[in-house]
Design the sequence.
C-alpha cells in the first residue's frame, strides 16, 4: 500500500465503483486531475488515467494498489453522503438505496455498531414497520 494523501480518496472511489455509486469516467477524471496537480502522484494514477473507463475491474485493482484493503471511517461517511445525495436528488429510488445499503454492509468492513444499526434499519424496512423509511432517510441525512 502506498502511504500518501491519495489513500482515502482511492478507497472512496474503489468502494463507490463497487457499489455502483460512481462510474469509471468519474475515477479516470479524478486520476487525470490528480496527475495534473501533482507530478509525484502514485504511478497507479497514471494506470487509472489510461484505463478504459468501462473496465471497472482494472480500475478497482489500480485503486486498491493505492488504498490497500479497508476504508477509514471518513471514507464510509462520504459513501453514506453519496448514498444520501442520490436518494434526495431522485437519482436513486428508496428501494435501490436499501439495496446499496445492504451491499455496503456486505462488501465493506464496518464497525460492529454501525453494521448492526444498518441491519436493524433494513429489517424495519423489510417488515414494513411504521416510519421505517423516514428513519432511514433521517439517518442518511446526517451524512450530507
Sequence:
Amino acid at each position: 500500500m502506498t502511504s500518501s494523501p491519495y489513500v482515502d480518496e482511492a478507497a472512496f472511489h474503489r468502494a463507490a465503483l463497487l457499489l455502483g455509486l460512481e462510474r469509471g469516467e468519474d475515477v479516470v477524471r479524478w486520476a487525470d486531475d490528480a496527475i495534473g496537480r501533482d507530478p509525484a502522484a502514485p504511478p497507479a494514477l497514471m494506470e487509472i488515467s489510461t484505463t478504459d473507463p468501462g473496465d471497472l475491474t482494472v480500475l478497482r485493482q489500480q485503486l486498491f494498489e493505492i488504498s490497500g484493503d479497508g476504508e477509514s471511517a471518513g471514507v464510509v461517511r462520504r459513501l453514506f453522503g453519496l448514498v444520501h445525495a442520490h436518494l434526495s436528488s431522485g437519482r436513486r429510488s428508496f428501494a435501490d438505496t436499501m439495496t446499496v445499503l445492504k451491499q455496503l454492509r456486505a462488501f465493506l468492513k464496518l464497525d460492529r455498531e454501525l453494521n448492526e444499526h444498518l441491519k436493524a434499519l433494513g429489517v424495519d424496512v423489510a417488515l414494513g414497520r411504521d416510519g421505517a423509511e423516514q428513519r432511514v432517510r433521517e439517518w442518511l441525512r446526517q451524512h450530507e
In short: Residues 7-67 form one domain. Residues 84 and 138 are 10 Å apart (CA to CA).
